[in-house]
Protein backbone atom coordinates (compact mmCIF):
# COMPACT_ATOMS: atom_id res chain seq x y z
CA UNK A 1 0.00 0.00 0.00
CA UNK A 2 2.82 2.39 0.93
CA UNK A 3 4.55 1.68 -2.40
CA UNK A 4 1.34 2.46 -4.29
CA UNK A 5 0.93 5.76 -2.45
CA UNK A 6 4.52 6.65 -3.21
CA UNK A 7 4.10 5.81 -6.90
CA UNK A 8 0.86 7.83 -7.04
CA UNK A 9 2.56 10.81 -5.36
CA UNK A 10 5.53 10.60 -7.76
CA UNK A 11 3.16 10.37 -10.69
CA UNK A 12 1.20 13.40 -9.52
CA UNK A 13 4.41 15.40 -9.03
CA UNK A 14 5.61 14.39 -12.49
CA UNK A 15 2.38 15.71 -14.01
CA UNK A 16 2.98 19.02 -12.24
CA UNK A 17 6.62 18.96 -13.37
CA UNK A 18 5.52 18.36 -16.97
CA UNK A 19 3.23 21.40 -16.81
CA UNK A 20 5.98 23.55 -15.25
CA UNK A 21 8.57 22.37 -17.79
CA UNK A 22 6.25 23.03 -20.73
CA UNK A 23 5.40 26.50 -19.36
CA UNK A 24 9.11 27.26 -18.89
CA UNK A 25 9.87 26.24 -22.49
CA UNK A 26 7.02 28.43 -23.73
CA UNK A 27 8.26 31.37 -21.64
CA UNK A 28 11.46 31.44 -23.71
CA UNK A 29 9.34 32.30 -26.75
CA UNK A 30 8.41 35.61 -25.09
CA UNK A 31 11.84 36.85 -26.21
CA UNK A 32 11.23 36.17 -29.87
CA UNK A 33 7.51 36.37 -30.65
CA UNK A 34 6.33 39.96 -30.90
CA UNK A 35 3.26 40.80 -28.82
CA UNK A 36 2.02 42.50 -31.96
CA UNK A 37 1.49 38.95 -33.26
CA UNK A 38 0.60 37.03 -30.09
CA UNK A 39 0.71 38.15 -26.46
CA UNK A 40 0.20 34.86 -24.62
CA UNK A 41 3.93 34.11 -24.42
CA UNK A 42 4.54 37.55 -22.90
CA UNK A 43 2.46 36.57 -19.86
CA UNK A 44 4.60 33.45 -19.40
CA UNK A 45 7.70 35.64 -19.73
CA UNK A 46 6.60 37.53 -16.62
CA UNK A 47 6.44 34.22 -14.75
CA UNK A 48 9.87 33.03 -15.98
CA UNK A 49 11.77 33.40 -12.64
CA UNK A 50 9.14 31.35 -10.83
CA UNK A 51 8.96 28.70 -13.53
CA UNK A 52 12.75 28.44 -13.40
CA UNK A 53 12.76 28.01 -9.61
CA UNK A 54 9.95 25.44 -9.82
CA UNK A 55 11.91 23.33 -12.29
CA UNK A 56 15.07 23.60 -10.18
CA UNK A 57 13.12 22.32 -7.16
CA UNK A 58 11.70 19.45 -9.20
CA UNK A 59 15.21 18.57 -10.40
CA UNK A 60 16.48 18.51 -6.81
CA UNK A 61 13.55 16.32 -5.74
CA UNK A 62 14.12 13.77 -8.51
CA UNK A 63 17.88 13.79 -7.80
CA UNK A 64 17.25 12.99 -4.14
CA UNK A 65 14.91 10.18 -5.21
CA UNK A 66 17.43 8.93 -7.80
CA UNK A 67 14.75 9.10 -10.48
CA UNK A 68 15.36 9.39 -14.21
CA UNK A 69 12.47 11.88 -14.21
CA UNK A 70 15.17 14.46 -13.47
CA UNK A 71 15.81 14.58 -17.22
CA UNK A 72 12.62 16.60 -17.84
CA UNK A 73 13.38 19.65 -15.65
CA UNK A 74 17.09 19.56 -16.55
CA UNK A 75 16.32 19.66 -20.27
CA UNK A 76 13.73 22.45 -19.78
CA UNK A 77 16.28 24.53 -17.86
CA UNK A 78 19.15 23.76 -20.24
CA UNK A 79 17.22 24.89 -23.33
CA UNK A 80 17.06 28.41 -21.90
CA UNK A 81 20.41 28.51 -20.12
CA UNK A 82 21.29 31.86 -21.71
CA UNK A 83 18.34 33.42 -19.91
CA UNK A 84 19.60 32.60 -16.41
CA UNK A 85 22.35 35.29 -16.23
CA UNK A 86 19.72 37.93 -17.00
CA UNK A 87 17.90 37.19 -13.74
CA UNK A 88 20.73 36.03 -11.45
CA UNK A 89 24.41 36.94 -11.43
CA UNK A 90 26.75 34.90 -9.23
CA UNK A 91 29.47 37.55 -9.06
CA UNK A 92 29.90 41.16 -10.07
CA UNK A 93 32.73 42.64 -12.09
CA UNK A 94 36.09 42.88 -10.32
CA UNK A 95 37.55 45.52 -12.61
CA UNK A 96 39.20 48.47 -10.92
CA UNK A 97 39.20 51.91 -12.54
CA UNK A 98 41.27 54.85 -11.34
CA UNK A 99 39.42 57.59 -9.49
CA UNK A 100 37.88 60.10 -11.89
CA UNK A 101 38.24 57.79 -14.90
CA UNK A 102 34.73 56.31 -14.74
CA UNK A 103 31.47 57.71 -16.12
CA UNK A 104 28.61 57.20 -13.65
CA UNK A 105 25.11 57.02 -15.14
CA UNK A 106 21.99 56.78 -12.99
CA UNK A 107 18.42 56.08 -14.09
CA UNK A 108 15.49 56.68 -11.76
CA UNK A 109 11.72 56.73 -12.23
CA UNK A 110 10.87 59.30 -9.54
CA UNK A 111 7.10 58.66 -9.60
CA UNK A 112 6.07 62.32 -9.82
CA UNK A 113 8.36 63.19 -6.90
CA UNK A 114 5.74 61.85 -4.49
CA UNK A 115 3.22 64.41 -5.71
CA UNK A 116 0.27 62.27 -4.60
CA UNK A 117 1.85 61.28 -1.26
CA UNK A 118 2.28 57.64 -2.21
CA UNK A 119 5.00 57.67 0.45
CA UNK A 120 4.14 59.31 3.79
CA UNK A 121 7.35 61.37 3.88
CA UNK A 122 7.19 65.06 2.92
CA UNK A 123 10.83 65.53 1.91
CA UNK A 124 11.16 63.03 -0.96
CA UNK A 125 12.45 65.63 -3.52
CA UNK A 126 15.12 66.82 -1.10
CA UNK A 127 16.15 63.24 -0.29
CA UNK A 128 16.53 62.53 -4.00
CA UNK A 129 18.76 65.58 -4.27
CA UNK A 130 20.79 64.28 -1.33
CA UNK A 131 21.20 60.87 -2.96
CA UNK A 132 22.56 62.51 -6.10
CA UNK A 133 24.85 64.74 -4.06
CA UNK A 134 26.18 61.73 -2.10
CA UNK A 135 26.74 59.47 -5.12
CA UNK A 136 27.90 62.14 -7.60
CA UNK A 137 26.69 60.55 -10.86
CA UNK A 138 27.81 62.30 -14.04
CA UNK A 139 24.45 61.83 -15.79
CA UNK A 140 21.01 61.25 -14.27
CA UNK A 141 18.05 60.04 -16.33
CA UNK A 142 14.68 60.67 -14.68
CA UNK A 143 11.28 59.40 -15.73
CA UNK A 144 7.89 60.54 -14.39
CA UNK A 145 9.49 63.81 -13.34
CA UNK A 146 7.04 66.40 -12.03
CA UNK A 147 7.68 70.12 -12.42
CA UNK A 148 7.48 71.42 -8.85
CA UNK A 149 7.01 75.05 -7.84
CA UNK A 150 10.33 74.62 -6.07
CA UNK A 151 12.19 72.69 -8.82
CA UNK A 152 14.44 69.77 -8.10
CA UNK A 153 17.98 71.12 -7.96
CA UNK A 154 20.56 68.32 -7.85
CA UNK A 155 23.47 70.73 -8.44
CA UNK A 156 24.15 69.53 -11.98
CA UNK A 157 24.75 72.45 -14.36
CA UNK A 158 23.30 71.01 -17.57
CA UNK A 159 19.73 69.85 -18.01
CA UNK A 160 17.41 68.81 -20.83
CA UNK A 161 13.72 68.05 -20.28
CA UNK A 162 10.63 67.25 -22.29
CA UNK A 163 7.12 67.14 -20.88
CA UNK A 164 4.04 65.37 -22.16
CA UNK A 165 2.75 68.49 -23.88
CA UNK A 166 3.36 72.24 -23.91
CA UNK A 167 1.48 72.87 -20.68
CA UNK A 168 2.27 69.51 -19.05
CA UNK A 169 4.17 69.13 -15.83
CA UNK A 170 5.12 65.45 -16.07
CA UNK A 171 7.85 64.17 -18.31
CA UNK A 172 11.48 63.09 -18.59
CA UNK A 173 14.67 64.90 -17.61
CA UNK A 174 18.37 64.40 -18.24
CA UNK A 175 20.76 66.06 -15.78
CA UNK A 176 24.47 66.18 -16.65
CA UNK A 177 27.74 67.35 -15.16
CA UNK A 178 29.20 67.19 -18.67
CA UNK A 179 28.36 69.91 -21.22
CA UNK A 180 25.49 68.93 -23.51
CA UNK A 181 26.68 69.31 -27.12
CA UNK A 182 23.37 68.42 -28.76
CA UNK A 183 19.95 67.14 -27.70
CA UNK A 184 16.60 66.00 -29.01
CA UNK A 185 13.89 63.37 -28.71
CA UNK A 186 12.01 60.75 -30.70
CA UNK A 187 8.24 60.46 -30.25
CA UNK A 188 7.46 56.79 -29.68
CA UNK A 189 4.96 55.17 -32.09
CA UNK A 190 1.69 53.42 -31.26
CA UNK A 191 -0.63 50.98 -33.05
CA UNK A 192 -2.93 52.45 -35.67
CA UNK A 193 -5.84 54.24 -34.03
CA UNK A 194 -4.12 54.47 -30.63
CA UNK A 195 -2.78 57.68 -29.10
CA UNK A 196 1.02 57.75 -29.20
CA UNK A 197 2.58 58.25 -25.77
CA UNK A 198 6.15 58.52 -24.64
CA UNK A 199 9.41 59.99 -25.85
CA UNK A 200 12.99 58.83 -26.12
CA UNK A 201 15.17 61.76 -25.05
CA UNK A 202 18.81 61.90 -26.06
CA UNK A 203 21.81 64.11 -25.38
CA UNK A 204 25.30 64.14 -26.82
CA UNK A 205 28.06 64.83 -24.30
CA UNK A 206 31.82 64.91 -24.57
CA UNK A 207 33.63 62.64 -22.16
CA UNK A 208 37.40 62.25 -22.14
CA UNK A 209 37.67 63.73 -25.61
CA UNK A 210 35.04 61.49 -27.25
CA UNK A 211 31.42 62.14 -28.11
CA UNK A 212 28.85 59.91 -26.40
CA UNK A 213 25.08 59.72 -26.90
CA UNK A 214 22.87 58.91 -23.90
CA UNK A 215 19.18 58.01 -24.24
CA UNK A 216 16.46 58.30 -21.60
CA UNK A 217 13.52 55.93 -22.21
CA UNK A 218 10.14 55.59 -20.56
CA UNK A 219 8.27 52.86 -22.39
CA UNK A 220 4.52 52.33 -22.24
CA UNK A 221 3.30 51.66 -18.72
CA UNK A 222 0.80 48.99 -17.71
CA UNK A 223 -1.27 51.66 -15.95
CA UNK A 224 -2.37 49.58 -12.97
CA UNK A 225 -3.61 51.18 -9.76
CA UNK A 226 -1.63 50.77 -6.56
CA UNK A 227 -4.01 48.21 -5.06
CA UNK A 228 -3.75 46.14 -8.25
CA UNK A 229 -0.06 45.60 -7.53
CA UNK A 230 -0.59 44.89 -3.86
CA UNK A 231 -3.43 42.41 -4.47
CA UNK A 232 -2.13 40.87 -7.69
CA UNK A 233 -3.26 37.28 -7.76
CA UNK A 234 -5.00 37.50 -4.36
CA UNK A 235 -8.73 37.18 -4.09
CA UNK A 236 -8.83 38.95 -0.75
CA UNK A 237 -12.40 39.68 0.40
CA UNK A 238 -13.85 40.21 -3.06
CA UNK A 239 -16.59 38.05 -4.46
CA UNK A 240 -15.63 35.63 -7.24
CA UNK A 241 -17.30 37.89 -9.78
CA UNK A 242 -15.46 41.01 -8.57
CA UNK A 243 -12.18 39.10 -8.50
CA UNK A 244 -12.68 37.83 -12.05
CA UNK A 245 -13.52 41.34 -13.29
CA UNK A 246 -10.39 42.77 -11.68
CA UNK A 247 -8.15 40.04 -13.09
CA UNK A 248 -9.73 40.49 -16.53
CA UNK A 249 -9.01 44.23 -16.34
CA UNK A 250 -5.42 43.63 -15.23
CA UNK A 251 -4.95 41.09 -18.03
CA UNK A 252 -6.33 43.56 -20.57
CA UNK A 253 -3.99 46.29 -19.34
CA UNK A 254 -0.98 43.96 -19.56
CA UNK A 255 -2.00 42.77 -23.01
CA UNK A 256 -2.31 46.34 -24.32
CA UNK A 257 1.02 47.35 -22.77
CA UNK A 258 2.86 44.34 -24.27
CA UNK A 259 1.62 45.27 -27.73
CA UNK A 260 2.41 48.98 -27.47
CA UNK A 261 5.91 48.41 -26.12
CA UNK A 262 6.55 46.10 -29.08
CA UNK A 263 5.84 49.00 -31.44
CA UNK A 264 8.13 51.24 -29.42
CA UNK A 265 11.15 48.92 -29.17
CA UNK A 266 11.04 47.90 -32.82
CA UNK A 267 11.28 51.59 -33.70
CA UNK A 268 14.00 52.24 -31.12
CA UNK A 269 16.07 49.27 -32.23
CA UNK A 270 16.29 50.81 -35.70
CA UNK A 271 17.22 54.19 -34.19
CA UNK A 272 20.03 52.73 -32.09
CA UNK A 273 21.43 50.66 -34.96
CA UNK A 274 21.43 53.71 -37.24
CA UNK A 275 23.59 55.67 -34.79
CA UNK A 276 27.20 54.69 -35.39
CA UNK A 277 28.81 56.23 -32.31
CA UNK A 278 28.96 54.95 -28.73
CA UNK A 279 25.64 54.94 -26.87
CA UNK A 280 24.20 54.31 -23.43
CA UNK A 281 20.47 53.58 -23.12
CA UNK A 282 18.80 53.87 -19.73
CA UNK A 283 15.34 54.20 -18.32
CA UNK A 284 12.14 52.52 -17.25
CA UNK A 285 11.42 49.80 -19.83
CA UNK A 286 8.38 48.53 -17.88
CA UNK A 287 9.40 44.98 -18.84
CA UNK A 288 11.73 42.40 -17.26
CA UNK A 289 14.64 40.66 -19.05
CA UNK A 290 12.38 37.72 -19.99
CA UNK A 291 10.41 39.86 -22.43
CA UNK A 292 10.30 40.80 -26.09
CA UNK A 293 10.91 44.45 -25.13
CA UNK A 294 14.20 43.73 -23.38
CA UNK A 295 15.40 41.07 -25.80
CA UNK A 296 14.83 43.27 -28.85
CA UNK A 297 17.15 45.96 -27.45
CA UNK A 298 19.57 43.50 -25.85
CA UNK A 299 20.24 41.87 -29.24
CA UNK A 300 22.56 44.75 -30.16
CA UNK A 301 23.35 46.24 -26.73
CA UNK A 302 24.93 44.86 -23.58
CA UNK A 303 23.21 44.82 -20.19
CA UNK A 304 25.13 46.56 -17.39
CA UNK A 305 23.62 44.15 -14.85
CA UNK A 306 25.04 41.15 -16.72
CA UNK A 307 28.42 42.90 -16.99
CA UNK A 308 28.79 43.97 -13.38
CA UNK A 309 25.72 43.06 -11.32
CA UNK A 310 25.39 40.49 -8.58
CA UNK A 311 22.57 38.40 -7.15
CA UNK A 312 18.85 38.68 -7.82
CA UNK A 313 17.98 42.33 -8.43
CA UNK A 314 14.67 44.14 -8.03
CA UNK A 315 14.14 47.68 -9.33
CA UNK A 316 10.33 47.96 -8.96
CA UNK A 317 9.28 47.82 -5.33
CA UNK A 318 5.52 47.35 -5.63
CA UNK A 319 3.69 44.04 -5.59
CA UNK A 320 4.89 40.52 -4.77
CA UNK A 321 6.99 39.96 -7.91
CA UNK A 322 10.69 40.96 -7.90
CA UNK A 323 10.79 42.74 -11.26
CA UNK A 324 13.92 44.27 -12.78
CA UNK A 325 12.29 46.67 -15.24
CA UNK A 326 14.72 49.63 -15.05
CA UNK A 327 17.76 49.00 -17.23
CA UNK A 328 21.01 50.55 -18.40
CA UNK A 329 22.26 49.12 -21.70
CA UNK A 330 25.31 50.11 -23.70
CA UNK A 331 27.25 49.37 -26.87
CA UNK A 332 30.07 47.20 -25.65
CA UNK A 333 32.37 47.61 -28.66
CA UNK A 334 33.03 51.14 -27.36
CA UNK A 335 32.48 50.89 -23.61
CA UNK A 336 33.03 48.51 -20.74
CA UNK A 337 30.86 48.46 -17.63
CA UNK A 338 32.68 47.71 -14.40
CA UNK A 339 30.12 48.61 -11.71
CA UNK A 340 26.37 48.16 -11.28
CA UNK A 341 24.27 49.07 -8.27
CA UNK A 342 20.63 49.36 -7.25
CA UNK A 343 20.10 51.75 -4.34
CA UNK A 344 17.61 50.21 -1.91
CA UNK A 345 16.18 53.55 -0.86
CA UNK A 346 12.40 53.84 -1.04
CA UNK A 347 12.07 57.27 -2.63
CA UNK A 348 9.64 56.16 -5.34
CA UNK A 349 7.93 52.97 -6.52
CA UNK A 350 11.20 52.30 -8.37
CA UNK A 351 14.73 52.05 -7.02
CA UNK A 352 17.55 54.15 -8.52
CA UNK A 353 19.94 52.16 -10.73
CA UNK A 354 23.54 53.21 -11.42
CA UNK A 355 26.26 51.86 -13.69
CA UNK A 356 29.86 52.98 -14.20
CA UNK A 357 31.66 52.90 -17.54
CA UNK A 358 35.07 53.40 -19.06
CA UNK A 359 36.28 53.48 -22.65
CA UNK A 360 37.66 50.35 -24.22
Write up this protein.
The mean pLDDT is 90. This protein is α+β, with helices and mostly antiparallel strands and 360 residues long. Strand 3 (158-163) and strand 4 form a beta hairpin. It is globular. The strands form two sheets. It has a six-stranded mixed sheet with strand order 3-4-2-1-12-11. A six-stranded mixed sheet has the order 5-6-7-8-10-9. The chain is built from ten helices and twelve strands. It folds into two domains: 2-87, no CATH class; 103-359, Endonuclease/exonuclease/phosphatase (Deoxyribonuclease I, Chain A). Residues 106-350 form the Endonuclease/exonuclease/phosphatase domain. Pfam families: Exo_endo_phos. This is Endonuclease/exonuclease/phosphatase family protein. GO terms for molecular function: endonuclease activity; exonuclease activity; metal ion binding.
The CATH topology label of the largest domain is Deoxyribonuclease I, Chain A
Count of individual domains: 2
As a whole number of angstroms, the C-alpha radius of gyration is 22 Å
In terms of structural class, how would the helical and strand content be classed? alpha+beta
Distance between the termini: 67 Å
Number of strands: 12
The number of helices is 10
The CATH architecture classification of the largest domain is: 4-Layer Sandwich
* Major sheet size, sense and barrel closure: 6 strands, mixed
* Overall pLDDT confidence: 90
Portion of residues within helices: 25-40%
Could you give the order of the helices and strands?
HHHHHEHEEEEEEHHEHEHEEE
Strand line-up in the sheet with most strands: 3-4-2-1-12-11
How much strand? 15-25%
CATH superfamily of the largest domain: Endonuclease/exonuclease/phosphatase
Low-confidence stretches: none
Shape: globular
Pfam family, one: Exo_endo_phos
Keywords: DNA damage, DNA repair, Endonuclease, Exonuclease, Hydrolase, Magnesium, Membrane, Metal-binding, Nuclease, Transmembrane, Transmembrane helix
Protein name: Endonuclease/exonuclease/phosphatase family protein
GO biological process, one term: DNA repair
Amino acid sequence: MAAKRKNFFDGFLYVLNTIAAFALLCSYLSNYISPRVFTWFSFLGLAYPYLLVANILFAIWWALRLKTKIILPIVAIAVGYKQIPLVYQFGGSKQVVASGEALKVMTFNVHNLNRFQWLPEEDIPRRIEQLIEDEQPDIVLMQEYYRLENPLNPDMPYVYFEFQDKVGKTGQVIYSRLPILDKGFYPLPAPEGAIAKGKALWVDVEWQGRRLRVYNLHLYSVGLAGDDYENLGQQSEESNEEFQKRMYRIGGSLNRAFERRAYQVEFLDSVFQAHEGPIIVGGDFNDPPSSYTFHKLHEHLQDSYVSAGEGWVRTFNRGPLPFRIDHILYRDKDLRCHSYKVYQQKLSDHYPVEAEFSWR
